[in-house]
């Protein structure tokens, strides 16, 4: 293999994206590496943790085709510290020489034959979606997914629902939802096009989608979505590069989330997101057991309180427009902070039914996104 990589910046960005798919722990030494293939004018980088994988392709000037795998962290650190010049990469017998300006380094690799097989994107295209809309939806719902310690794998994913289309008209609605048993985030958005008119529901690991968002920020075209058996794929086109993310789906039936979403409210609050979040984060300093007490009153505004038997206590008042009777509720302060962080508008609407029922956080004048937080039972 002998190749000239035209831009250190582009190579650095490619390695940064691909390395996110390298496992932190594995029994397969080659999986800690990034696979590098040179074929004609295409430089292909690949990484996988056996649940998700990325293939990143960019242009290059090749003198000799070839393939190898190189340690992800070392390669990333090296390229990140090189000057913004062309990079010469030459590899013989899985020993790579990387030269850039006055720098030259040799890295020991592992044969590509030992690298795990990565499935390619299939031809079963579901449709396309705006990269910015997809990124917004994923950033809003993935924080509500469960972590691996929860013991319920199905909740470690994002539930994607696409209704069936008719012969007369494509149904472009798509819903992304995530829940961990204590909160639920759901976002309705639109596909750009539909290729397959059938309805489908699929649960995709939230971790896979979180890593996908990092390349969506650089997309220049709509994202192509494919689905086949237990694999879902996303093809992202960027300037001078393409990235394909493939992930296994999660088997199982997702909980009925519709019954959790309140359809009516008793009290409704409209408040500055910045002011409310500032008060919440101050309360965090004193919140024993992550308990944040909310009290909404049309005359007094939003009253927040938190206490710690050793540190002390805190009380804050936030001005707000409140419709409805007084409501008192205790919520997990971290979940409230997460909900506010995923709302893009300057003002947020919070709806309450009672102190024993969920609170709903909604962007002002935008009902396509809802973040529902279950109440905490405190004395």
**CATH level-two architecture of the largest domain:** Roll
Mean pLDDT: 94
What overall geometry do the principal axes of the alpha carbons give? elongated
N-to-C CA distance: 68 Å
- Strand count, sense and closure of the main sheet? 9 strands, antiparallel
Order of the strands making up the biggest sheet: 6-2-3-4-18-17-16-10-14
* Number of self-contained structural domains: 3
**DSSP helical segment count:** 6
**What is the number of strand segments?**
27
CATH class of the largest domain: Alpha Beta
List keywords for this structure.
DNA Polymerase III, Chain A, domain 2; 43% strand; single chain; 3 domains; 9-stranded antiparallel sheet; 17% helix; 379 residues; 27 strands; alpha+beta
What's the short version?
This protein has 379 residues and is of the alpha+beta class. Helices cover 17% and strands 43% of the residues.
Model description:
- The protein has 3 domains: 2-114, DNA Polymerase III, subunit A, domain 2 (DNA Polymerase III, Chain A, domain 2); 125-257, DNA Polymerase III, Chain A, domain 2, CATH 3.10.150.10; 264-373, DNA Polymerase III, Chain A, domain 2.
- It is of the alpha+beta class.
- 17% of the residues lie in helices and 43% in strands.
- The radius of gyration is 24 Å and the shape is elongated.
- It has helices at residues 8-19, 72-80, 131-141, 206-216, 273-284, 333-341; strands spanning 2-5, 33-39, 42-48, 52-59, 61-64, 66-71, 87-92, 95-100, 103-108, 125-129, 157-162, 173-179, 183-190, 193-194, 200-205, 223-228, 231-238, 241-248, 267-272, 291-297, 301-308, 312-318, 321-323, 327-332, 347-352, 359-363, 369-373.
- β16 and β17 (231-238) form a beta hairpin.
- α1 runs antiparallel to α2, α3 packs across α4 (206-216) and α5 (273-284) packs antiparallel against α6 (333-341).
- The protein has a 9-stranded antiparallel beta sheet with strand order 6-2-3-4-18-17-16-10-14. Strands 15-11-12-13-27-26-25-19-23 form a 9-stranded antiparallel beta sheet. The chain has a 5-stranded antiparallel beta sheet with strand order 5-1-7-8-9, with no helix packed on it.
